[in-house]
Amino acid sequence: MALNILVVDDSMVMRTVIIKTLKMCGIPLGEIYQASNGLEGIQVLEKEWIDLALVDINMPVMSGDEMIDKIRNDPTFADLPVIVISTESSETRIEMLIKKGAEFVHKPFSPENIRRAISRKIGGLDHGSDEGTDDFGDGPDF
Ligand SMILES: [Mg+2]
Q: How far is the CA of 10 from the centre of ligand 1 (A)?
């Protein structure tokens, strides 16, 4: 299954790095969409079929937190897998995001970090646990 992925980050350079990383980590990619803040991200969600959103926290106009709240409160998108990619280091804030059903990846990240997070969010359904997702030798699990 090819994944349509939405990358939301106010830094164009960071979006480019994330997209490059996605292409490196062996995930079957469909369309990749970009947005530079949460509001733009929501607008993309309303127009396109998205399987997974990778979302920054600190952005102008609408932050990642706000975007995730909107997603979770809208029955159309409530179950959308979300991975937060951020420099955020506050444990409390990270805990809050995880409670909202988001996976968290620290910047800077490696392709393995991204792939592991995606596997937990999507491919993780196949293993039933996080165990085994450290093994990158046998290709994607989804
Ligand atoms: Mg930012």
A: 5
